[in-house]
Design goal:
Elements (H helix, E strand, L loop, with lengths): L2 H9 L4 E6 L3 E6 L2 E7 L7 E4 L2 H8 L4 E3 L8 E4 L7 H17 L3 H8 L2
Antiparallel strand pairs: 1-2, 2-3, 3-4, 4-6, 5-6
Helix pairs in contact: 1-3
Length: 116
């Protein structure tokens, strides 16, 4: 897995945008709400994403995972190396993070996304 693979997975999701924030983080958003962040200036490449409340503690204690700095209170986890997970695992985590953020959007915005 590499950053381009992450980009391809994210770009398949409806209404996803990407942006560089804080000068060095590639952020993937739905309706301007982040669901995944890739650290571009880190080696190995770190990735943080939104986790389900009920999965946060377990995920944070897995090898290579930890609560994401600055975002842990919102149940985000960080992975120390994007190569730690295979393509299928990344697809699953990215899809779940996307759905979690999308589900919190106002109903009219969610409907617009679902109609894409």
């Amino acid at each position: 897995m590499n950053i381009e693979d992450i980009c391809r997975i994210c770009s398949k999701l409806p209404a996803v945008t990407e942006d560089i924030k804080w000068g060095h983080d590639l952020c993937f958003c739905v309706a301007k709400k982040m669901f995944l962040v890739v650290g571009l200036d880190e080696s190995p490449t770190h990735v943080a994403f939104k986790a389900a409340d009920e999965e946060f503690e377990e995920m944070s204690s897995r090898e290579g995972f930890k609560p994401a700095p600055y975002l842990a209170r919102h149940k985000w986890v960080a992975v120390d190396d994007l190569e730690r997970l295979n393509h299928k695992e990344w697809e699953d985590y990215i899809n779940r993070a996307y759905q979690l953020i999308k589900s919190k959007l106002p109903k009219n915005i969610r409907k617009g996304i679902e109609n894409l």
